[in-house]
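Sample pair:
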Amino acid sequence: MENRTGLALRILFVGIGATLFMDIWAIAADSLFGIPQSNFSVVGRWLGHMLDGQFTHESIRRAAPIAGEAAIGWTVHYLVGIIFVAAFVMIFGNRQLQKPSLILAILFGVVMIVFPFFVMQPSLGAGVMASNRPNPDFARLKSLMTHFSFGLGMYVALWVQTKIFKPIEAPVSSAS
């Protein structure tokens, strides 16, 4: 049980760390280059409308606001980061918690762009790969930069957790 708890704590730490890194990257991009940050209130609004059975919108910004949409959106933003890290560890194994790979982390972060391109953006009214946005290429590049920064942040958080937590022990076999 200790191994599972330790694994869960590591995934939680890395997921929050990677998402925080991505958010700091977004703040820096906004401050230095005027690239607007994502508005996670619309994610909360989208999820709130799902409870009423509405999964897609012509424009999420014109949809009725939902009570607590900002808190819901930000919470889900961090939960998704944790889920992405859990998937990363499931796919590439616990070795990434001991000797993380920069290339795998960045590639994984970039590949996760399929979710906003093909699920979120179309559902929120932005179209597939932001095709309905006023400047779709800019929106695509911003998504790419965001997911690259998540991958980089995941690597940094993976590396930091190797310095904080004890090495993972091999699971105890019940056959012994």
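The chain has seven helices and no strands.
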